[in-house]
């Protein structure tokens, strides 16, 4: 039994259990009846999502390492509220008796609140499912509490003009697989 941290909209893992959408907004253009069928989530759970103010701040500029560290600090402060601490404790305890998952739309876990949520759940004693596909660059280095490992230094949460701004699309709940017309 364990909690799995996943990207919403991705195929479900075997024995994943109930999927909780820890996002500020449900996906746009998707009927409520289709959230589960299209692998978004079984239950929308915005209580563990970053505040609207923090999401706006995150989308205002590209993530540099310093901005990411600031984001982590602010999100952790938001999660330190007693009501959210109780939710984290509840999920941590449930992870020892049931399989379930929490997730967000963002493509890159290393620049998404779900990576911080993974750490917070572990700090509360949760049993975390390991995913063999999780790249080393998206895991936390030992002793870096809240600071994510990156591959190759500064990494942006957005793609160039030719591509898609996947971070803002993901947080806003838009389709993440749009392709730039210039690129084709």
Describe this structure in words.
The structure is a single chain. The chain has 184 residues and is α/β, with parallel strands linked by helices. It has one domain (3-172). 30% of the residues lie in helices and 9% in strands. It has a 4-stranded parallel beta sheet. The model is unreliable at 134-184 (pLDDT under 50).
Key terms:
four-stranded parallel sheet, 184 residues, alpha/beta, 9% strand, single chain, disordered C terminus, 5 helices
Write the topology of this structure:
Blueprint: E1 3-7, E2 18-21, E3 43-44, H1 52-60, H2 65-79, H3 82-94, E4 100-104, H4 113-123, H5 166-172
Parallel strand pairs: 1-4, 2-3, 2-4
Number of helices: 5
| C-alpha end-to-end distance | 45 Å
Mean pLDDT: 77
Q: How many separate domains?
A: 1
The run of helices and strands is: EEEHHHEHH
Which strand order do you get reading across the main beta sheet? 1-4-2-3
Range of helix content: 25-40%
Shape: globular
The largest sheet is:
4 strands, parallel
**How much beta, percentage-wise?**
5-15%
Spans where pLDDT lies below 50 across 5 or more residues? 134-184
Q: Mind telling me the C-alpha Rg?
A: 16 Å
Overall strand count: 4
Category from helices, strands and their pairing: alpha/beta
